[in-house]
Amino acid sequence: MTIAEIAKLAGVAKSTVSRYLNGGSVSENTKLKIEQVIKETGYVPNTFARSLKAKKTSIVGTIVPRLNSYATSQTLIGIDEHLRENNYQLLISNTSQDLNREVESIYSLANQKIAGIILLATQITDRHLEAFDKINVPVLLVGQQNHHFYSVIHNDEHAGYEIGKYVISQGHKKIAYLGVTEEDIAVGVKRKRGFQKAVRYDNECEVHYFETSFKLTEAIKKFPAIFETYKPSIFVCATDNIALGVLKAAQMRGLKIPKDLSITGFGGYEVTEIIHPSITTANFFYKEAGILAAKNIVKLINNEEIEKVTVSNFELIIRDSVDKLN
Amino acid sequence: MTIAEIAKLAGVAKSTVSRYLNGGSVSENTKLKIEQVIKETGYVPNTFARSLKAKKTSIVGTIVPRLNSYATSQTLIGIDEHLRENNYQLLISNTSQDLNREVESIYSLANQKIAGIILLATQITDRHLEAFDKINVPVLLVGQQNHHFYSVIHNDEHAGYEIGKYVISQGHKKIAYLGVTEEDIAVGVKRKRGFQKAVRYDNECEVHYFETSFKLTEAIKKFPAIFETYKPSIFVCATDNIALGVLKAAQMRGLKIPKDLSITGFGGYEVTEIIHPSITTANFFYKEAGILAAKNIVKLINNEEIEKVTVSNFELIIRDSVDKLN
DNA sequence: CTGAAAGCGCTTACAG
DNA sequence: CTGAAAGCGCTTACAG
């Protein structure tokens, strides 16, 4: 089935059918005829021919650092949902946490004439800047903020603040903050900064800051030394994964949570609810952030105005992993 | 940059450049010239023009029931990896567990002239059969077997058998098997069948079979009634998710695992290791199955022979959730 | 080995 | 509102 056959069957010119398909002006009468023929034949336009002429597609490329992460999945689900409803297609490009592949993906997606790019960002390097600069395609960052780009971010700083306030309200005076590298602005800098703001004016409160990677296993390894030398009453962990590592390490040495040690996380990962005891955490709405991202990229594609930074919400979920000391 | 410009710069005809690009016969000399020009200009062929003529692409569509599942992520990672290495592109189509959307996706992918389809299958209905029949594209099933299709499956039956053997070897005599609907052949039928084979000849062993859904929360709800009326020494759960639900429910009522109750799962989900106590389970190699699937679909696309059914391996992982009673 | 030409299935000014 | 024609950037017989 081609547009030519449809045109012939409907007794009109190809261009008229094309106009009908693209919402151009067609008389009611011919509209009906074409509609009829298309229904009968089940005709679907050839995407390649269309894209070849129009020099663009209705595909939004989303670059993700990894596929096997709760945050990624939920965000993708949100993006997918909104894109689908608006007749855009989602193309997922997985980079397996390889920044080189991330840059390659940018060029590769541009080459496929995708309409826009959503990047679930971790770090933005000069090579990212250069690539985005070259390709001239609407771009939206999710999870990290950068003054060169539009972005949808989580409220990491405020989440850190709320966690801090809560921990203090439960009477904790000796806190181990287990964070990550400051190269990650959102997770490494902002969550900590928010936390610091909350504890700053409590003079009796002592906080020591430690750093680990995003890996659960690394947190398990780091735990014993910190716990033994510093003896904190609580571990405030910069991610749920780290919190899970700390929980595992603590339970392995027979500690009762939260009686012997309290723990908090960030993220709102499903496991934190399943696990026993369930973990107090700041829950980010990843799926909603995905929907916001999709909405914004669509607007960008249509040259509509949007805010430079859209902040997605969070909620503090108080569960069973923090002991009340006062 | 178009092929015409490259041709002009290299001083040859478009068709010669095209032949060079597609591995046709070109003299060493012209090959060098073209190579040079392409390098200088950074020319990349237009995919749409190419696909429009060639009437096919190098895209493999993978239809997944859901994005937020460990099994799905791992399988996709495997598929992605092997496809990338072989210059195919992966297009992921998420159906959010909606069988209608699954069927729609089949047609939609076919319409995009993808080279092949991998379906992470749950159930195969007549409408699936009809769709695949119509589109005439190589198809491969993952996770479920069906005599109409090529497939890569997990060794569910043998895994069930090994779990059964192990449970008996630990002296359990009163077993609750918590399974799922038999509409799911792999999970609902085969795992149970394997398990039954293992326990069949142990006369002292009593097994009661129960059914729940795939949802963790449902397992939590089902737990109390089963536990109180039947009082088993172990819950053999048909998935890790169900096992996690049982664990949660048991811990909520203060039971010590495995002292008061033993639990096993199927799947090898990451959480089963993190959680305390860690759960004994049959670990399926999802990523490897993904690689196998990608290998097979590529062969199918190239008209190479493959086995109708490829069985992916598993391993029994013995951890801390089963008590030794003998 | 190489080139000229036709054609894949659309869209888009342009003219009426 | 409608149609004829050109052209998007490739590939593929065909002829030499």
The greatest interface between two protein chains, and residues involved on each side, is: A-B, 33 and 34 residues
CATH superfamily of the largest domain in chain A: Response regulator
Sheet bearing the most strands of chain A, described? 6 strands, parallel
The percent range for strand residues of chain A is 15-25%
- Low-confidence runs of chain A: none
Structural class of chain A comes to: alpha/beta
CATH architecture of the largest domain in chain A: 3-Layer(aba) Sandwich
Instruction: Tally the helices of chain A.
Output: 13
Large-scale geometry of chain A:
elongated
Kindly report the average pLDDT value of chain A. Answer: 95
Within the CATH hierarchy, at the fold level, what is the topology of the largest domain in chain A? Rossmann fold
Describe the protein in words:
2 copies of one chain form a homodimer. Chain A is α/β, with parallel strands linked by helices. The first copy, chain A, folds into 3 domains: 3-45, no CATH class; 59-153 and 286-313, Response regulator (Rossmann fold); 156-284, Rossmann fold (3-Layer(aba) Sandwich), CATH 3.40.50.2300. Chain A has 13 helices and 12 strands. In chain A, the strands form 2 sheets. A 6-stranded parallel sheet of chain A has the order 2-1-3-4-5-11, sandwiched between helices. A 6-stranded mixed sheet of chain A has the order 7-6-8-9-10-12, with helices on both faces. The longest helix of chain A is centred in the N-terminal third of the chain and has 16 residues, at 70-85. Chain A is elongated, with a radius of gyration of 25 Å. Chain A binds chain B through residues 44, 46-49, 51-52, 67-68, 70, 73-74, 76-77, 80, 90-92, 94, 96, 111-113, 216, 244, 247-248, 251-252, 271, 274-276, and chain B through 44, 46-49, 51-52, 67-68, 70, 73-74, 76-77, 80-81, 90-92, 94, 96, 111-113, 216, 244, 247-248, 251-252, 271, 274-276. The structure holds a DNA duplex (16 and 16 nucleotides).
